[in-house]
Design brief:
0% strand; single chain; mainly alpha; 87 residues
């Protein structure tokens, strides 16, 4: 009985570890995608010149960006892929 209990505990822990790894992998992927998107945005703003850079640093624009990324983070992957180029 003790052996069976220990075996069951080990299986449960293995399942928990697998779920934690999946969670970490998903969030690592999301952070990598976010980093690529932010780099793309920064490059586009820089290419537009100093006036666009100043506007991008305004509190109003930054609030809009925060709201946009909040919505983006909650979106399905397929939705992100179809809208990622629409700035």
């Amino acid at each position: 009985m003790l052996s069976a209990s220990a075996s069951l505990d080990a299986e449960s822990q293995g399942h928990v570890n697998e779920l934690q790894q999946q969670w970490l992998d998903e969030h690592r992927r999301k952070l990598e995608e976010l980093a690529r998107t932010l780099a793309d945005i920064a490059q586009r703003i820089t290419s537009l010149g100093p006036e666009a850079e100043a506007r991008a640093e305004s509190p109003e624009y930054l609030g809009l960006v925060r709201k946009g990324f909040s919505v983006w983070d909650g979106a399905d992957t397929t939705e992100r892929e179809t809208t990622s180029g629409d700035y």
